[in-house]
Amino acid sequence: MFSFSTKDRSQILFLFNLFLDAAKR
């Protein structure tokens, strides 16, 4: 398992949300 810091995790979630938002369009 990879352990992400809080900053890394929030950045990944941010990019993931952008990806989901783009996929909806």
Structure, briefly:
This protein has one helix at 6-24.
Keywords:
single chain; mainly alpha; elongated
Shape: elongated
Strand content of the residues, in percent? under 5%
On the 0-100 scale, what is the average pLDDT?
86
Work out the number of β strands.
0
Class computed from helices, strands and strand pairing: mainly alpha
How many H/I helices? Answer: 1
The separation of the N and C termini measures: 33 Å
Note down, in words, how this protein is organized:
This protein is mainly alpha-helical and 25 residues long. It has one helix and no strands. The protein has one helix spanning 6-24. The longest helix has 19 residues, at 6-24. The N and C termini lie far apart (33 Å). The model has no long low-confidence stretch (mean pLDDT 86).
Write the layout of secondary structure elements.
Blueprint: H1 6-24
